[in-house]
Protein: Anhydro-N-acetylmuramic acid kinase
Amino acid sequence: MLAIGLMSGTSLDGIDAVLVDIVEGPFEIHELAFDTQEFSKETKERIKKACHPKDSTTPLISSLNMELGQLSLEACQKVLAKANKTAEELSFVASHGQTIWHDPKAKTGVCSSTLQIGESSVIAYGLDTQVVDDFRVMDITAGGEGAPLVPYAEYLLYHSNEHTRLLQNIGGIGNVTVLPKQGSIEDVFAFDTGPGNMIIDALMDHFYKKPYDSKGETARKGKAIPELSQRLQQHPYLMQEPPKSTGREQFGEEFVRALIDQYQAYPPEDLVYTVTDFTAYSIATHYQRFIFPHYSKDEIEIILAGGGTHNDFLKERLQHYLTDCSIWVQEQFGYSSDSKEAVAFALLGYATLTGKSSNFCSVTGAKRPVILGKITPKPYN
Structure:
């Protein structure tokens, strides 16, 4: 069956769309086409504003929900055209949506909550197909963090009898999935490792009007700010025990504004160097605290995915902190680093439609496995 997975993450690059062919019995998945519907500068600013508690408004979120639904529809249409397929051939679309707020522990409100927008009805109507979205809410209702959800797909595609695999995604936020050697679903665990590209991208936009640090070239020109490095390495999130998740609420606009204000005496490239190094450090220190004590390093394979795989300097800093570890990228295993999360949500949508639970309690902390997502049906006959 043909399906489209949609992913829009904390990096705010745009909406990733992947067209896959899911083969049943025995299960296989084949990627047919991938594309990204990039956000305009204006859309990106509206999303940032909607995510900010002091700047956001109800009319803004309501309108943005429909706007992102339309952009999601266009992303689907582009990836179908790229593969020379039609909407009539689709079985379903699975959409993550754009996270506006994520507070699974009710730190800022009466109830635990999460909010992803990007109206599924717009997608369903435009393609005359069913859409699965809003995956995180059921897990939070079951007592979980609502994240990470990608481990379901990672287990299907990557579990190994020879190696313990650490699947490290570096998007706006970094997250790792641990697939123990010869492990079962119950053995899988995962958590967010902290910021991925989020702080780096925000500084590049502020100082250079660029969306990201291409290949890490700006960071490479700088040097560490010792005081800031020490402060970042003592961030409370790094000490918190898994399961845990984070996002723009901790490492977003307010965090970056404070860095810029407090370290304005330093060259911008030094700030970019320091936060790039912090992303690498946050990944490595989580491994050292929560993973390496339990698994043999000789049997571990670290596999990177996400936009951070294109930042050569970031990868060098990660190898610096993990000197005795082998670090790979997904392409070396026959998969795409860029489409990984979109593929995962296509598989999550498939699980929803076939009545399978797809949250891992060992990952999210939920009380029980549950079927995730909400289904918007085909709108007309």
Observations:
- The chain has 15 helices and twelve strands.
- The mean pLDDT is 95.
- The CA atoms of residues 228 and 234 lie 10 Å apart.
